[in-house]
Amino acid sequence: QNMDSTLHYIHNDSDLSTNSSFSPEEERKSKVQDVVPQALLDQYLSMTDPSRAQTVDTEIAKHCAYSLPGVALTLGRQNWHCLKDTYETLASDMQWKVRRTLAFSIHELAVILGDQLTAGDLVPVFNGFLKDLDEVRIGVLKHLHDFLKLLHVDKRREYLYQLQEFLVTDNSRNWRFRAELAEQLILLLDLYSARDIYDYLRPIAFSLCADKVSSVRWISYKLVSEMVKKLYMASTPTFVVDLMNELVEKFCRCHKWSGRQTFVFICQ
Predict the structure, then answer these.
(1) Which of 147, 157, 67, 162 is nearest to 115 (CA)?
(2) Helix count (H) and strand count (E) of the chain?
(3) At what angle do helices 214-232 and 175-188 cross, to 10 degrees?
(4) 91 with 102: CB under 8 angstroms?
(5) DSSP strand E in the chain: where?
(6) Low-confidence residues of the chain, pLDDT below 70?
(7) Cα dihedral sign, 168-172-178-181
(8) Is residue 83 part of a domain?
(9) CA-CA distance, 108 to 137, in Å (whole number)?
(10) What stretch or stretches form a coiled coil here (predicted)?
(11) Whether residue 193 sits in one domain with residue 134
């Protein structure tokens, strides 16, 4: 009850709201909210203190990162300003396990925050994860479609140029990374136009069809077949005709039996 009355005072006192010592930026960054007891939130936010993490528990930042989407959901997007600094601190944590945890949940946080806050506050973090270690990148890759579908069309198109980078990994034997990319590209077909699919996704799909690992190739055959379906439904028939001609030239008439077998599997 005392906490409620204090919060009521802070929210409604006209002298405080007009005090010249508080700039609009400082008020926006204020950690005061009225959803949960303020002391509880302050205790949670203090978990990202580096000195505390070193002296109390090295895993504490990871636990904090794991719980963050739940805290954000509880507080609501109107109180995101309470968590924003903590989120950015965790996103730049030295421990890759902390960043990996955030990478796996950034799509959930985007749903909670909505498109405007996502574009302003989450997209820069997302871009950072794309350039991180493979252990972190796999988190955003596994939910790439879930995140990109929440972005505005123009912002979403910017990532077409970066999809090619997922073919390069720290360890070339990490075939599951490429298999996941093929799975995500199947879902991404619904988000992009026929021209974008032909110009950007097609080269990646053909590259995956020639992968050294059979599991990656098998998913890629499905990807190419779905691509043909998608382009066939497009208003311009040019793309699907060109794609099928390329399939015939690259695989059906290939001098290697494995290439001809690829063509049969795609037809299947």
Answers:
(1) 147
(2) 18, 0
(3) 10
(4) yes
(5) none
(6) 1-31, 50-57
(7) negative
(8) yes
(9) 16
(10) none
(11) no
Structural domain count, the chain: 2
Could you tell me if 147 and 225 lie in one domain? Answer: no
- Tokens at 156, concatenated: 């979403």
Same domain, yes or no, for 182 and 140?
Answer: no
The answer to whether 142 touches 108, Cβ cutoff 8 Å, is: no
What's residue 236's pLDDT? 85
φ/ψ (deg, to 5) at 45 = -65, -30
- The pair of structure tokens assigned to 209 is 């069809």
Residue 258: domain span: 174-267
Are 138 and 194 contained in the same domain?
no
Tell me, yes or no, whether 181 and 138 share the same domain.
no
If asked whether residues 108 and 194 sit together in one domain, one would say: no
| pLDDT (0 to 100) of residue 130 | 93
Q: Which of 215, 213, 244, 214 is nearest to 227 (CA)?
A: 244
